[in-house]
Amino acid sequence: MECGDMAQAQHSAMLAMTFTPHQRSSRMIRKLTEIAIINEDYAIAQKYLHMLLHTSLHRKWAKERLEFINSGQCNSIPYWNNKRRMLAKQDTLFSANQWRTSLANLIESNPQNKMAADYLLCFHLLNKDLKLFKKDYDRYYYPTFGLLPPRLYQEALIVCMDEKDDPQEQLKHYRIPFQVYNDCLQYLSIYEESQGDGHALQKQFRKTYWFYYHYAQLKP
User: Fold this and answer.
1) Which of 13, 32, 33, 56 ranks highest by number of CB atoms within 10 Å?
2) Would you say the C-alpha torsion 72, 78, 79, 81 has a positive or negative sign?
């Protein structure tokens, strides 16, 4: 929901209610109400709000939202307006686990959606898919947010560097400090000398992406 994917947010909220039959919380109804308001589906939102009026924890909250809807003030709430600007401009059918398609759709609709871009890039890094990371970084992140790439992205980009091109030019292009490059060379030197022994690298490099890439075990 925070990165603007209301379809996935709605799906998750409904799953939370479906697969927890003994829960008594009304929080998911509140979440579905917020999604409906952001989508400007006020008839559905009013249905949920009338249900929340009968709860002890959300009665006041529901009453205030009903007043906003009935008075036509929903477009004056900054939070809802900000979320509407993040919504995808095109409806695309995809399954619940097609994260790249979903996030790319959000970014293409709003290139300023940094949260969606970060989720997309970190999804690739977690899966150690550096080919897709580099492709999506160049397409979605670099043109808008590439002036100050975080250290995590710098470390991954160094691994993706083309051996045929001048490393200095690539570092300059991606605005990666030379110190990060030197750290990578030191990591590789220790890695080769220790024949891949992770204990020799753990103390100094355990928080780097290089260490994660070599030693983290991904569950199927």
Assistant:
1) 33
2) positive
